[in-house]
Amino acid sequence: MQLTATEKIDITNILLMIVSCCVAMVLPFELFLFSYAILGPLHYLTEISWLHDKNYYTKSRYDAIILVVVGLLITVKYFDSFLEIDLPDGFDANLAYIGLLSSIIFVTVKNPYYKIGGIAVLILSSQVSHNYKVFFTIFLPTLIHVYFFTAIFMLYGALKSQSRFGIPSVIAMILCPFALMYIFPDRAFNPPTDYSVGAYQLFKVVNMQWLMHVNDVPLQNDMTAWDKIIFHSKDGILLMRFIAFAYTYHYLNWFSKTKIIQWHNVPKVRFAAVIILWLISVAIYINNYASGLKWLVFLSFLHVLLEFPLNVTSVIGIGNYFKGLMFKSKSAQA
After folding, report:
1. For the segment 141-182, what is each residue's pLDDT rounded down to a tens digit?
2. CA-CA-CA-CA torsion sign (205, 206, 208, 212)
3. Cβ neighbour number for residue 171 with a 10 Å cutoff
4. Residue 69: exposed, middle, or buried by beta-carbon count in 10 A (0-12, 13-18, 19+)?
5. Residues 197, 204: Cα–Cα separation, whole Å
6. Furthest CA-CA distance within the chain
7. Cα 286 to the chain's mean position, in Å?
8. What pTM does this model have?
9. Do 122 and 97 meet the contact criterion of CB atoms below 8 Å apart?
10. Quick one: which of 261, 241, 264 has its CA closest to 253?
């Protein structure tokens, strides 16, 4: 059976999912921390560079300026206590709401006056986001970004390419969390090291909110109680398996498709700058994990925001594909 280049990449991705699953099952905290520090920065830098050359999948390249401003403001909110700026509670939820929904406008609306009007409506209605603050501030830039939007991107690519292994790779993506949940569910192969527990303190708000909203874990009185649940309970370990898999495969999926999306085909000066910034970022993470996270917090938020128009484009593309199938079916019946 002759395999196309796309089919070979799809098979590779299925294998990468299996490997990610296996490592996530055995070393969930360590895998996440490694992937986030080593693969993450290179992903941010190369994806932003690639999106720039694709006009950010918006009707106008300048639309992305709004998303950059949103990213800067979210970063200011992140550092508000350090900067001694008293920003209102929920300000970051407002910004994420505007960033996500404005991307729909940027992808679908060309008239600048309609865009301005649409963004004005979003700003005025952004208080609605406070009712879904956990979604917009915790889950959207993390698990929804790395798992749900990755699956959508894969499905869109599979439908476009018609690869024989495209849909199976999407199915594998869906099945992996179930495998992590139901294979050896009562066994923690390697308890997290002291270093891992310390470094992961920066991220555990995601685990806390998921465990409370999905697993119905009661709100704990102190962080020591939360640490026992996150790092040593069954629910905590199973959740961390999923998080480690989702982040690791999100990055690996991006790098595995280099030949297809050609993110490396950029001016040499820009590519060199990307590599230098990546090496500096990794060095900072190795020296001090918290410093690495702070150093890259803007790029981390920014790449999520700049990817929103691509996510919208993927959803629209999937919808158009199935709409086309329905029209073909009706035409055949007629």
Report:
1. 999 999 999 999 999 999 999 999 999 999 999 999 999 999
2. positive
3. 13
4. middle
5. 10
6. 68
7. 23
8. 0.95
9. yes
10. 261
